[in-house]
């Protein structure tokens, strides 16, 4: 009982910090407006790099094979880009550790990827994918019968997709994300190990605050990456979109999925498989990460 009362006190203090942060214009001594995420000089220490898909499934859970181009597979392209991105982060972002969710050709389940991200206490999650358009169904005339045209339906590849697309988690999946936030972030920051009641109003307030921040920060990071692709590399872009994606909903950190190009478009496929293309993609993501890092770290100054 005593322990419970103490936990309640620690918890209430956390809530007070959140509530105070709603009044940024007022001075509360050393309490800063972004205290909830910038506890005493928040620093980005770990970036999770997630190469989408894979070959042979390992372990249990949900897997997805990925798209194919005319001479390459999405799963190989994403691994090549992710390995380069890991190296570039460790070279150009001193003090930042880059953790891969998959290092071999074998596939890792969505569940395990999210676990790796949370276990390693990632501050940012970047998932690397390639886009692809499904085949189109078209009707074509094959002849005539009794003076009437005869048609058949055929599927033809649609290679018209081009350029990048940035995805952040969709709001319709936010219940699942809330559970992860309660489990990882809120319990840790409030000094409580386990057993938070997700329906407790205090938990709801804290979780909503984290959710708001993570969504805001995901949009901020996605915008920075998109701008680098379009302004520096001159790539075509479909912009930012919200979508319910398992790994993005289960990571308690700002998360962005980068569709680096259309693997079933001949020009994009060539670019995605070239050393120059992969290096350009990696450099753009690293520049965006550096800008994002200085922006969020400066909030706590
Ligand atoms: Zn994919």
UniProtKB/TrEMBL annotation:
InterPro entries associated with the record: MurNAc-LAA_cat, N-acetylmuramoyl_amidase_3
Positions of the MurNAc-LAA domain: 114-290
Coiled-coil segments on the chain, per record: none
EC annotation from Swiss-Prot or TrEMBL: 3.5.1.28
Listed SMART domains: Ami_3
Catalytic activity as recorded in UniProt: Hydrolyzes the link between N-acetylmuramoyl residues and L-amino acid residues in certain cell-wall glycopeptides
Keyword entries, A-Z: Hydrolase
Protein name, as recorded: N-acetylmuramoyl-L-alanine amidase
